[in-house]
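quick one, 277 residues, struct below
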Amino acid sequence: MQFHETKISFIGAGNMASAIIEGLLEKGLAPENIMASDPSQDKLDAMAQKLGIKVSMQNKAAVEFSDVLVLCVKPQVLEQVIEPISSVIAERSPVVVSIAAGIEMNSLERWLGSDLPIVRCMPNTPAQVLEGASGLFANSHVSAQQKAVIEALFSAIGYATWVDQESLIHAVTALSGSGPAYIFLMIAEMAKTGEELGLDAHAAKRLAAQTVLGASKMVLQSELAPQQLKQNVMSPGGTTERAIGVFESEGLGSIVNKAMHSAATRSEELAALFGGK
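---
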């Protein structure tokens, strides 16, 4: 199975499915190799017109088309979506990818069949601008070639990495799954304070957002650790040193640590809740 020859279906045609499909098209996958199914004909028509892909209101058609089947539905309804098509999935035997938060592999294998190749994925919302971060976990039936295709699929919308223990999906959830909201909060507070200091709202928001974008690019493109990059901005006795001193004295590091541990714990709680259904 080669990436550019792979037929990929999406059950659910929401924002995340649209983001992934746009990334795949940008990476050169032909639109005729992509299908989406959804109960909303209006949503499908809009997607077909914008992206040129195949669409159907029948989930069975999406399964029959697929080499890779991406489940893009809410975790609360995933079991009832799978149940009517489970026999077709078993017969077709695609690689099944679930992006439903909190639905663990044992539940997926119980609903789909324990001998199917299944991947859990935790993407994040910047996938909508093709700058996502995705954590991936595969069961033992996913081959190396299939893993390469799935990695290429999610690399089309940003950065993708495999974890070798399913429990680490909780860490991915706390870090990159929920992480965009942490950054949005920081941008909002920086922009608000910029306004208090006299900037107009538009300039304050753009300066804050561009600063985060630029700093992120520096981290990704530099061989230096983020801690060293921070030090490089801090002239002795300067403005940055003064600001960082306030962050550190107010316990920013411990706040981030506590928040992420809380998010990971909630991820574990949701997995237990959904797994017990």
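The chain has a mean pLDDT of 94.
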